[in-house]
From TrEMBL:
Cross-referenced InterPro entries: GH115, GH115_C, GH115_sf, Hex-like_dom2
Residues of the Gylcosyl hydrolase 115 C-terminal domain: 810-982
Name used for this protein in its record: Gylcosyl hydrolase 115 C-terminal domain-containing protein
Secretion signal span: 1-21
Gene3D superfamilies: 1.20.58.2150, 2.60.120.1620, Chitobiase/beta-hexosaminidase domain 2-like, Glycosyl hydrolase family 115
Organism: Polaribacter sejongensis
Length: 985
């Protein structure tokens, strides 16, 4: 009983149900090995029977007790039905046994309640009442969740825990209506997984994604309280309507079938349009043939729940071809297409066109036509899209929000196309998806939410989050609720004892993927496909970004392997699919490239360790092969064979690495390479300048690395001797040989022992901190001794002990820059109608600052900004003065609509605010780099008039802009991928 209570409470928390003080009732689903019966009206919708069968199978899986459907003499039964469609339910209503006033005539709304003596023959019933057929099915599957069955029981092998007794505590409450009317998924880019799996494994009798596969997809959709599907549409898959049974199965499961932006009127142009027989796919010169296709499909789908995509594009997701090559002609032609399509619906759908769900998707060039003034009937729903990388292009204006057809969103967590695909793993940050969808919801996009989830696997968690938000957005008002959702999800799937650790692991996974998706690690592009390029990650500055990323992924691997051993046996297959494979896959693909970059870098320095790094790169590639083979051939006895492809489209990023080897040097010697230098330390090269570490700053407590490596053949002992007692080295002696070719040492300072520098002089403008005057520095050295040779590395410490900084709480200059994470403001001041808020779980720093609410007016004049806008303030201290670049990094979102922007304003001290604008247009190179990096950067020139304390201010111009990091560059910033770590006191 205690376990049942825990499960129920955890479940209710997970789906966002508030447990009120209302009285709850007990209901026994299974008692002493005997299960309840499920009763429904055979004349009710087919989906009610299907959901009853699913629930009965779930109860059997949990309890080993068989449930009888519409039979048996049980005094304890589950009664399920739809108002007006079920005699059982209608009799209960007429006999005043149940109150359905809050359910009746609502959209997809249901109640679950315990009723005593519902009839003379039944003592107690758990009654599921649905306002419509889907609502009843949702109610039955809600009970499945209550008894501990995951929606992913089949699709991710989340085997339910066995329980002898199943007793529920049920609160009489109302579920629904959903926040978004139509909610579902789009099966896309199925060539590499879902189609092959269905054709070769699950549905070989069809050799395709056919009715058997769709039935399992539809079941998943129902379990996730969704109602819509856009079927697979690539040419490798036969069109959905080419299998007559597909539409019948969809209707049996009460699923609304729609189609993507390039499939007008439920027609799959990729495969259904035969140019040789039907002519060109051009409405300007082949209108009659195209209209015939539209008419035939409308007649074929008459009587089925469908959603029609209006308008048209060219073949294969290309722009529409027209005779007149000007936007006005194209727009007018598109208006005619829509008008003709609506006439076809009027004549052939069996309904008035206004009563048929219709959508118009302003995607790519179609958005241009719409923005150019295209007239569109207002009962058609506008479905806005993201830019394919998770950033919604546009939302409804206040005027558009009044349209009777409302609006919706088509969103991607998988994509094939420019600038680069991400088809393999799910790497979309859940908090980013929440932020974009909550923004859409705020701007009244509530009619349709569709998620392009590729092959379903491995997008399981994000699919559920997306659909849970669509079901009840009230449960997701804060960014922190996404983390709560993930923790509850992990608890349901893998137990309370592992939930928080799994969530922390996956948040780290998404954080690293946000900085660079695994599929983007080759620095290559597609369409056309380019070879791998030079990484932007630095190996010489800021603690070596390549090594730091390797270290981060190594921690993920260690953690996921530890958790895998702890997971219950009945959940190991699920853990492998939902957690283990994505983490190992992302880590290994990263390591393959990161070690390759290491291999190339050290080979240029002549290090023998190039061989070792090259082997680690090859090992990472082999790990991907090994795990993918296990996924396909071993996991759950080969159930998922062919579902997982480690190299979609066989792009360069997935290829086996080609590694470099260093030139041979037979002279045994110790090699030294210091942080900050491309080349190794070499006394034989005149003016190599590679013999001094970057300056240690007392206010940022710097740490720097030195690589010691073997040159030549043999064994070499080395020793490091600091020339001052305040210099600390992670290791002072060691041995190098073929078993250990190199080692990285870390140098720190004992600040309690270091002498105080002379702080009477000011540092000169624009100094390089490598060249600080002796009065500002304390200088010493580290001597490296090996093979009777001494090599000295300079160590300089900046330690002025300024009284002004004794109790300073802000940021401080370090080597010519100040680095700030935007959430670490010292003060914030509210504006007239808005204020800054921190969103947790997204951005390079892990959190971003955003001005909310998003519906507040933009402030575009400097006077209005100063008067009305909320402002963030950051105190910082510089040892320089003069010209500075304030570089602001934001998450690369788009303007809400044309009249809005993506702007903020910055100033230092009392200077006038300078507006910076992050908006991009179309698919230009700036946008490409932004989405590959999940970051956009803009600069503002400022003057720092003196050394000392200053204040940076960031003002709202447009609400909703997500400020991630800020760098105040006085000339010292070195080339790197990300900003240096914060220079906070």
């Amino acid at each position: 009983m205690k376990n049942i209570k825990k499960i129920l409470i955890a479940f209710m928390m997970f789906i966002g149900i508030t447990v009120s003080a209302q009285k709850t009732s007990k209901f026994s689903v299974v008692t002493k090995g005997v299960a309840t019966s499920i009763i429904f009206d055979k004349d009710d919708a087919k989906v009610v029977e299907i959901a009853s069968e699913i629930l009965s199978e779930d109860i059997l899986k949990v309890s080993n007790s068989k449930v009888l459907l519409n039979s048996g003499s049980s005094k304890n039964v589950i009664i399920a039905g739809t108002i007006g469609e079920s005699k059982w339910i209608d009799d209960l209503i007429s006999n005043n046994k149940i109150d359905v006033s809050k359910v009746k005539d609502k959209w997809e709304t249901y109640s679950i309640q315990v009723v005593n003596n519902p009839t003379k023959e039944i003592d107690k019933a758990l009654v599921v009442v649905g306002s419509d057929r889907r609502a009843t099915a949702f109610g039955l599957l809600e009970i499945s969740r209550m008894i501990g069955v995951s929606p992913w029981e089949w699709w991710a092998d989340v085997t339910p825990a066995k329980q002898k007794e199943l007793v529920l505590k049920v609160e009489a409450k109302i579920y629904g209506s959903p926040s978004v009317k139509y909610r579902g998924i789009f099966l896309n880019d199925e060539d590499w997984g879902l189609q092959r799996w269905a054709a070769l494994n699950f549905e070989p009798e069809t050799g395709d994604i056919g009715p058997k596969t769709y039935a399992k997809v539809f079941e998943l959709v129902l379990r996730l309280r969704a109602n819509t599907l856009w079927p697979a549409m690539h040419s490798c898959t036969a069109p959905f309507y080419s299998y007559p049974k597909n539409k019948q199965v969809a209707d049996d499961y009460a699923i609304v079938v729609g189609t993507s932006h390039c499939e007008p009127m439920l027609c799959n142009i990729n495969s259904e349009w035969e140019s040789k027989k039907m002519g060109e796919w051009r409405y300007d010169n082949n209108e009659t043939s195209i209209k015939e296709l539209f008419k035939d499909r409308t007649k074929e789908t008459n009587g089925f729940e469908s959603m029609y995509t209006m308008g048209m594009r060219g073949e294969h997701d290309s722009p529409m071809i027209v005779g007149e090559d000007d936007s006005d002609s194209q727009m007018k032609l598109l208006e005619k297409v829509v008008s003709d399509q609506r006439n076809i619906l009027d004549l052939n759908s069996g309904k008035n066109k206004e009563d048929v769900p219709q959508i118009f998707i302003p995607y790519k060039e179609v958005l241009t036509y719409y923005q150019g003034g295209m007239e569109l009937p207002e009962d058609i729903s506008l479905v806005w899209t993201d830019d394919n990388y998770g950033y919604i292009r546009q939302l409804s204006t206040p005027e558009e929000q009044l349209r009777s057809g409302g609006a919706g969103i088509y969103y991607h967590t998988s994509y094939w196309g420019r600038p680069h695909d991400y088809l393999w793993l799910n790497s979309t940050n859940p908090v980013l998806m929440w932020e974009e969808m909550s923004k859409a919801y705020e701007f009244k996009s509530r009619n349709l939410w569709i998620l392009n989830c590729g092959d379903i696997k491995p997008h399981e968690y994000n699919i559920e989050l997306f659909l849970d938000m669509a079901w009840n957005m009230d449960n997701f008002k804060e960014s922190t609720q996404v983390k709560e959702h993930h923790t509850n999800w992990a608890s349901r799937e893998f137990g309370n004892e592992n939930a928080e650790e799994i969530t922390a692991l996956m948040y780290n996974y998404y954080q690293l993927a946000f900085q660079r998706r695994p599929e983007f690690m080759a620095w290559s592009e597609v369409e056309p496909v380019t070879k791998s390029g030079k990484t932007e990650l630095t190996q010489i500055h800021y603690a070596d970004e390549v090594s730091k990323r390797i270290e981060s992924y190594s921690k993920l691997i260690d953690k996921v392997e530890d958790l895998y051993t702890d997971v219950a046996v009945n959940r190991k297959d699920a853990f492998y699919q939902l957690i283990y494979y994505p983490v190992i896959g992302a880590s290994s693909l990263n390591n393959k490239w990161l070690y390759k970059y290491k291999n190339e870098f050290v080979a240029k320095q002549g290090r023998k360790s190039a061989i070792s790094f090259g082997q680690k790169s090859l090992d990472a590639f082999s790990r991907i092969e090994k795990e993918t083979n296990y996924y396909n051939t071993k996991l759950n006895k080969g159930k998922w064979n062919h579902i997982m492809n480690m190299a979609p489209r066989f792009l360069p990023v997935f290829s086996k690495p080609v590694v470099a080897s260093a030139s041979q040097n037979n002279n045994l010697a110790l090699g030294l390479a210091l942080e900050g230098y491309e080349m190794e330390m070499n006394e034989e090269i005149i003016n190599s300048y590679a013999d001094v570490l970057p300056v240690f700053n007392a206010y940022t407590k710097s740490t720097y690395f030195i690589d010691v490596f073997l040159k030549g053949e043999g064994t070499l002992n080395w020793e490091a001797k600091p020339k001052a007692d305040w210099i600390k080295i992670s290791k002072t002696k060691g041995t190098l040989n073929n078993g250990k070719l190199e080692e990285r040492l870390f140098v720190t300072i004992d600040w309690a022992k270091v002498p105080v520098g002379d702080n009477k002089k000011e540092a000169p403008l624009g100094h390089d901190f490598q060249l600080i005057p002796p009065s500002f520095k304390v200088n010493s050295a580290i001597e490296f001794i090996s093979n009777n040779k001494v090599q000295a590395i300079g160590v300089s410490v900046f330690n002025p002990k300024l009284k002004e900084l004794e109790n300073f709480k802000g940021f401080v200059e370090d080597k010519g820059f100040v680095s700030i994470n935007a959430e670490h403001f010292l003060r914030k001041k509210a504006g007239k109608n808005a204020n800054w808020k921190v969103l947790e779980g997204v951005g390079y720093s892990g959190n971003v600052s955003v001005a909310l609410p998003r519906t507040v007016a933009s402030e575009v004049s400097i006077s209005a900004i100063k008067k009305n806008s909320p402002v963030l303030e950051y105190d910082f201290y510089t040892f320089n003065f003069g010209k500075a670049n304030v570089v602001v990094q934001a998450v690369p979102t788009h303007a809400f609509y044309e009249e809005k922007g993506v702007r903020c304003a910055v100033s230092i001290d009392d200077a006038e605010p300078v507006i910076v604008d992050f908006q991009t247009f179309g698919r230009d190179d700036e946008w490409k780099q932004n989405v590959l990096k999940n970051a956009t950067q803009k600069q503002a020139k400022q003057i720092i008039n003196k050394a000392g304390k200053h204040t940076l201010k960031i003002w709202m111009v447009d609400p909703g802009v997500m400020i991630d990091q800020v760098l105040i560059d006085l000339g010292g910033k070195k080339e790197s991928y990300a900003f240096p770590k914060e220079t906070k006191m």
